[in-house]
Amino acid sequence: MGALRLTLLLLALLAAAAAGARPSEVAVGALFTFDSTIGRAARLAIELAVDDVNADPTVLAGTQLKLITQDTNCSGFFGTIEALQLMEKNVVAVIGPQSSGIGHVISHVVNELHVPLLSFAATDPTLSASEYPYFIRTTISDYFQMNAIASIVDYYQWKEVTAIFVDDDYGRGGVSALGDALAAKRARISYKAPIPPNSNADVINDVLFRANMMESRVMVVHVNPDTGMKIFSIANKLQMMASGYVWIVTDWLAAVLDSSTSRDLKDMSHIQGLIVLRQHTPESDAKNKFISKWNNVARNRSITSGLNSYGYYAYDSVWAVAHGIDQFLNSGQQINFSTDPRLHDSNGSTLQLSTLKIFDGGEQMLQQLLLTNFTGLTGPVQFNSDRNLIRPAYDILNVGGSGSQLIGYWSNYSGLSVTAPEILYHKPPNTSSIAQQLHNVVWPGDSTTTPRGWVFPNNGQPLRVGVPIKASFKELLAVSRGPDNVTGYCIDVFNAAIKLLPYPVPCQFITIGDGTKNPNYDDIIKMVAANSLDAAVGDFAIVRNRTRIAEFTQPYIESGLVIVAPVKQATSSAWAFLKPFTLEMWCVTGALFIFVGIVVWILEHRTNEEFRGSPRRQVITIFWFSFSTMFFSHRQNTVSALGRFVLIIWLFVVLIINSSYTASLTSILTVQQLATGIAGIDDLISSALPIGYQAGKFTRSYLIEELSVPESRLVPLNTIQEYADALKRGPKGGGVAAIVDEMPYVEIFLSYHCNFRVVGQEFTKEGWGFAFQRDSPLAADLSTAILQLSESGQLQRIHDEWFTRPSCSSDDNEVGATRLGLGSFWGLFLVCALICLFALLIFFIRICWQYSKYSSSEAAGEPSAADADAAAAAAASDAAERQRRPSRLGSFKELMQFVDKKEEEVRRTMKRRSSEKDNQAAGSSDPQSMASA
């Protein structure tokens, strides 16, 4: 029993040892077209990579890579067959294919058999991991290359490109990515020119001829390396390599140029001035050693083709497989294959599908490959979450002479730059428009001037220009003797701008409308957006909802919404002089005149002889002084400080009143009055009165959507006569209270009818422009031409030529003069009244103080009983005077009598009484001194 257990233990140990043993060799497949520009470079690079892996003891630890290659012959059918034959040989991974089309087909095979597929040249972005989980792209996806092209297009401010591409999975996938990338830069593919695979020269000639008839002169070429050079030879014959053209070529051309060891000067003459992209591979010692080794082996094998960037990616793909297998084996996994019961031969088939086996460790191998992280010839070989290589970058070349010049780089990290991407990776990313840079380019035709990238299409079709035909306002647009003879201010501006363009633009005017009713302008703009028209010319206001669907030029005339209302001439009246002020204003002003007169009289009465006399005379003085100040003709002088202070303030008030009265009376006698009382947009909105607008224009939607005016209040009008009739009838007669329209129309309308006026101010600011399809280069060029017309003064001359009717007199442009009420002056009146009251307060305080002194001096001046006998004689002489003096001044009547006294008399009396007091004091002291003696 013990022996049996020992035997079983030994067998288990042997099985474990056998399970952990590494295989002596592992089969790896390679699938590509041997005789092709990419295949010739990749074949030798893959062989050298296998030799280097097998010679490196740090990788695979004694396990040898066994390379099995199959030639796809540039055929999807044969590529599929070769792939199936490769699967029969129990390969753990496949390197290739180089064709995106074959990649799509083979990906279905490797998905079923769980064999990872590492492609070093299939760049179609639609080869995605979500659809093909066993597909790994070990090169840069065309998604990034098309973003690089979009950045170049945006850098030179082109808006449209023509895409010339091979009509297969590779070409269609790349162009689809290009369209998305351009859309993000506000550009687009204006024309797609697909070339069927394996096309002859006649087919390519037809495709290029049709592309040359289009407006875009920016050609993006995305075809196969082995047939692409035919395009430029034929384009040269069609004179498409001349000045004004732009050719941007994807990385296939760089592979051709790098692979051509002895370049044909004749072929190079066909591609002068092209911009070419090439996968960026950083400089390194390993790369230089590989290039030297590759060249030596190629020379020994008499390989005439040169090395291109795809060879570097093929080399790194082998190393990625080696690292993946190494990690797979180190984790204890075994390389085993099993049959799929679904794959069996039936009905006598000789396909031998049963030989296809599933790689049992395919899922684990796939995960190890996705974790690959090493530095190869192309830089870091590492995959992100989307299974794309990190740090995609391109060199941007400019073909010239017998070679090409490096003019910059593009990386997904920092966009366009003249600095190598590996340097920028150590800095913060900067994709701002200021940071994007490229060196100078020599364009086709040996030109150093950046091409415009667009010309008027040479397809024999004139520009379809829609022109609205209105029922009125013929100064702006009119048709005479057929639709080809369109005249008016807007047409003259358009024709003058077209003549300034550096290229001819034949135009065909298409009239819209029957001339009896205005067409809807928004519908015309929608026709432009829908490609029913190429442009719309006329009195089109540049408003928000239109700019969303069409491209507008620079405004050629300023415009804005204004209100037109009927006015009536003010009728003369015998009492017109009373109209400047309201009744309340007249009453308060008169009362203030009298009040100020009384205040000044009080302040001056005790000191100024001109303000004294009989009661009748003093009342007359008060009224005369008060109202004479209105004309600054008062003859009475003021002598007191308080009186002068009050008078100065009052004269200032009188000045304001006189000026306001004069201005208001002038306005009432000269200006016109509003018939409806509407003075601006706020009055119009708040009222319930009907509003007229020009049919077909944006005014209706503006009033409803922006100003919330009920639609029931809006009345559409078409002609100038309808404008006048509606305003004359007014709201009560079925007309309108006012019309809201743009200023140019109003100017024309008022030149015919002078009994209407603009009220208020412009409450919108816009202009008229010509509409084109979105991102049309014509819009930008015509904007430049309109600015040129404006700067030269020709735009104003065209305006003066059409707007020649004399306008109404501008003397009565002001309307709606109003009477001045108390509300405009109550603050001034209040200040004046307070100052008067303040002066009276000071005056009465002074009077009370003076009255107090006056009373005390009178009491002190009366004789005592002891001195009665001695002063009898003096008292007798003054008896009469004491009888005339009041005995006491304490009553209100006595106070008023004191106030009525002259200031000078009061002072004289108080002075005399003071002297009497002193004399009495001296007389009483003399008898006392005699008695003591």
Automatic annotation (TrEMBL):
This is Glutamate receptor. Residues 899-919 have a biased composition (Basic and acidic residues). One of its GO terms (cellular component) is membrane. It comes from Urochloa decumbens. It is a multi-pass membrane protein. Belongs to the glutamate-gated ion channel (TC 1.A.10.1) family. Residues 871-933 are annotated as: Disordered. The chain crosses the membrane at residues 583-603, 639-657, 825-845. CDD domains: GluR_Plant, PBP1_GABAb_receptor_plant. It is found in: Membrane. SUPFAM superfamilies: Periplasmic binding protein-like I (SSF53822), Periplasmic binding protein-like II (SSF53850).
